[in-house]
Amino acid sequence: MRNRSLAQRDYPLVIIGGGILGVTLAxxxxxxxxxxxxxxxxxxxxxxxxxxxxxxxVLHRPFYLDPETKARFARCAEQSYHLWKKLAQTVPGTxxxxxxxxxxxxxxxxxxxxxTYKDWSLKNGMKEYEVDLFDAEKLAQKFPHIKxxxxxxxxxxxxxxxxxxxxxLRDRAMAQGVHFLFRMPITGIxxxxxxxxxHSKTAQTDLKAGIVINCSGAGSLNLAQQLGxxxxxxxxxxxxxxxxxxAGIRDWFGANIYSVPRFKEFPFLDPHWVRxxxxxxxxxxxxxxPVPTPTSYDGVNLWDWKHFMQTPPTENKWKLxxxxxxxxxxxxxxxxxxxxxxxxxxxxQFIPELRGGHLTYRGLSGIRASLVDExxxxxxxxxxxxxxxxxxxxxxxxxxxxxxxxxxADLFRTLLKKGWLDGLKPRTDKxxxxxxxxxxxxxxxxxxxxxxxxxx
Length: 456
Ligand SMILES: Cc1cc2nc3c(=O)[nH]c(=O)nc-3n(C[C@H](O)[C@H](O)[C@H](O)COP(=O)(O)OP(=O)(O)OC[C@H]3O[C@@H](n4cnc5c(N)ncnc54)[C@H](O)[C@@H]3O)c2cc1C
Fold this sequence. Notes:
It is globular and about 65 Å long. It is of the alpha+beta class. Helix 1 packs parallel to helix 5 (162-175), helix 1 packs across helix 11 (400-418) and helix 9 (324-338) crosses helix 10 (340-347). The longest helix has 20 residues, at 71-90. Among the domains are: 3-51 and 163-233 and 381-442, 3-Layer(bba) Sandwich (FAD/NAD(P)-binding domain); 235-247 and 281-378, no CATH class. The chain is built from 12 helices and 22 strands. Helices cover 30% and strands 22% of the residues. A hairpin with a 6-residue loop joins strand 11 (196-200) and strand 12. It has helices at residues 20-30, 71-90, 111-123, 136-142, 162-175, 220-226, 302-310, 315-321, 324-338, 340-347, 400-418, 437-442, and strands spanning 10-16, 38-41, 58-59, 96-97, 101-105, 131-135, 150-154, 158-160, 179-181, 186-191, 196-200, 207-214, 234-240, 243-245, 256-259, 272-275, 282-285, 289-291, 359-362, 366-372, 383-386, 390-394. The strands form 5 sheets. Strands 1, 2, 9, 10, 11, 12, 21 and 22 form an 8-stranded mixed sheet that branches. The chain has a 4-stranded mixed sheet with strand order 6-7-5-15.
């Protein structure tokens, strides 16, 4: 559709953002509602151009997610694993590499975390056989290139290609009448009692929507703040760089290799050994380098930093900068960005033979937008801000790609309960799908966190 026709076209339901979450939600809605009532507005020329493409590509089993503090991500990861598996079995050519993940304790002090992971895996609904505890001896036998006092091996962790999965859902949503408008960055939003007005610099006139679901990733907070929500929070951006490893050492491990995080309150992890499902390559990454914008993929400049530091609320960022642990971790990440030998050195804590020379080409970097509250602390779960006729999903970070189908189903159920979908015309035909929408809509969400900034 050309931009000009926007003047005549109002949509009952608009989704902002064609990442994995927005597209999955559009697909689920298309299974229940008639054609041409749902539109996805996306800044880029296609879906999944940011986090949903630029990620580690691991379909995470929820063994490492605290069932209390990460309840929602854990439940969504558990439910979604089975949904993605069904999609991969049904759609020919979907990359699916069930290589497993080994998560190592770097030193003795981390050994209790491994037992905790086993406990969490069962509490989060995983099966006993999925998580195996390795002591140093078993580890040396099975993974001779690793040196560590212990590890957990998660047999069902799977390498996938989330961009490919998003594209599969895009194709099916389009076939079922969802409209996608690309190169349509939404820069302004306002709400009335009956409709939401959206402004885009590329459209000739404002677009009117019955309701709006804002799934625009790093862009979500800005739009919510225009409506007065989430104004005491800010985003801090971290770039994750990856390096391809030399072909000669690719078969050191058949699995993904992670280490137990040392600083759980910060979004810094030691980089992982990652098997790419689509290309067959192995990469080391990601780093977590602070950057000033959600698209600082290739470099940063002082102007962007100045703008970042001056954008309100500024106190959150200053409080974070006064945290000495945060600062020293950030400096270490920057050193890793400049010197690949520094990155290799960090990995040598558990892969002693790895050298900077083993890292050959740069992979595709991704950027995470992490929400920081007014005390300068990182917010751990995704947040929902409810407006009068709009819903905004903020801080939807890892394992967000893994959990997208269940998270989208949660949103669908809540929208139904609130009566926000009452104006949409239901389908009269039955649509074939690899997911049973009736079952997804029946399952009641459990342990939902209280949404922040609820207005209606
Ligand atoms: C380095 C890295 C590694 C990760 N690894 C994993 C992993 O292994 N496993 C996992 O499960 N998760 C992983 N994640 C997390 C996962 O990728 C994200 O949680 C997920 O992709 C978020 O999807 P999304 O649809 O919310 O956001 P996005 O994919 O960012 O999509 C948002 C979309 O909105 C569009 N947009 C933004 N602003 C506007 C606007 N104003 N108007 C219109 N459109 C707009 C953007 O162009 C974009 O296409 C990783 C993330 C990163 C950054």
